Each structure stands twice: as C-alpha cells, then as structure tokens.
C-alpha cells in the first residue's frame, strides 16, 4: 500500500515529465525541417 507521501512524489514526477515533454515538443514544432529530410521525403514519394 502506498502512502500519501509516495502518491504526492509520484504525482510531482509525472507533472515534471509532462512539462519536459511539452517543452521538447514545442521546440520541435518551431524548428524547420532540414533540407536533407525534405529531399529524402521526395525520394520516397517518387518510389511509389
């Protein structure tokens, strides 16, 4: 059985993980796709 203290600690860790994931996602959204990836996507589309 977990104590209230353990539950609070777990909740705090989960909150921190959520915040960090949001931060990383926001950074990725604002970055442009590198040209080499766009070229690779074009090559893959041509293979269809």
TrEMBL record:
Q: Domain Anti-sigma factor NepR: where?
A: 15-47
Q: What InterPro entries does the database record attribute to this sequence? A: NepR
Protein name per the record = Transcriptional regulator
Domain of life where this protein originates: Bacteria
| Pfam families for this protein | NepR
